Amino acid sequence: RLEILKWEKENESWQRKEAHKRIEFRDNQQKENERIRKIRTNWEQGVHQAIVDHAALVLSVSEYPDWISGNYLVQYDPENKLLKVQFELPNKSVVDAPKAVKFVATTGQFVETKLSLKEQKALYDNLCYQLALRSVHELFEADVKENINSIMDNFKNLNSIDSDTFELTLY
Known about the structure:
3 helices; flat; disordered C terminus
């Protein structure tokens, strides 16, 4: 009988905690939904900061491999309906991959053949163009209110920024 009373007391306590968690979750959900509604309303009305926030939201939900940071900066010029995007490119070392790997049975070892510098440059350039096109496409596709007439993108390898100043400027 004592064990049942103890279990009932623990269950009541757990039920109270769970009810509190549900209320807290709903409150947070309502606040977040209201924040999103406000951004949407402002975006629909062409409010400057809402357009920047919307573009940042579009870029933030893009899925990239781990070796692409997805870091970006966004600015908006409402007079010209110009969106400015600075996107961090992956380090050039991502294309420093083997072209082929062969197993040499007589030695029991693997032998790599590297991509030539020309092939690495072409691969990296292609990667950068694809990232730029994808980002521009996603931003225009999401702009159903036509707040953006043009996009100026600046895709940079931020690893090449002066390590003494750490300055990152956008146009």
